[in-house]
Amino acid sequence: MTTSRMPRTTMPAAPLKVFLPADITAPALARNEVRSALLDFGLRERQVADILLATSELVTNAFEHGERPQRLELEFADGRLTLRVHDTGRRLPELRSPAPAEARSRGLVLVQALSLDWGFERCPGGKYVWAVFRVPGA
């Protein structure tokens, strides 16, 4: 087996930190950066779909409900990936149960369904909203 085909068995040493623009391109930029990092780690496209959807939802929520998304961070530990989105808003996220006919308000419901766990914490300058995922082969 050549080394280029050997699966990676350790996560990157440094966590990924991406500073996000204060405009509607933030979710796409975040998805692209997360996708690249996960594929570089050795995951396949089908393994990253749920994480990418959650990335979009968390960054979009920060853009729409926070004052603005500021940065995204990925951290790998013990076979799990933690995705954090920092925004400058003081308003805390709220899990809602939208009516079936509602076109919006499903972001955190999706994040909850796709992740092992999710939550938020206040920090200097705003808050983090985070989600944890199991990373196959980590």
In short:
The chain has 138 residues and is an alpha+beta fold. The protein is built from three helices and five strands; from the N terminus they run E-H-H-E-E-H-E-E.
Give structural notes.
- The structure is a single chain.
- By secondary structure, this protein is an alpha+beta fold.
- Helix content is 33%, strand content 27%.
- It contains three helices and five strands; from the N terminus they run E-H-H-E-E-H-E-E.
- Strands 1-2-3-5-4 form a five-stranded antiparallel beta sheet.
- The longest helix has 21 residues, at 45-65.
- The radius of gyration is 15 Å and the shape is globular.
Strand adjacency order, main sheet: 1-2-3-5-4
Tell me the series of helices and strands, N- to C-terminal. Answer: EHHEEHEE
What spatial form do the alpha-carbon principal axes imply? globular
Low-confidence stretches: 1-11
Tally of helical runs = 3
Average pLDDT:
82
What oligomeric state best describes the polypeptide chains here? Answer: single chain
Task: Output the radius of gyration.
Answer: 15 Å
Give the fraction of residues assigned to helices. 25-40%
Share in β-strands: 25-35%
N- and C-termini, Cα separation? 20 Å
Task: Quickly give the structural class.
Answer: alpha+beta
- Tell me the total number of β-strands: 5
* Biggest sheet details: 5 strands, antiparallel
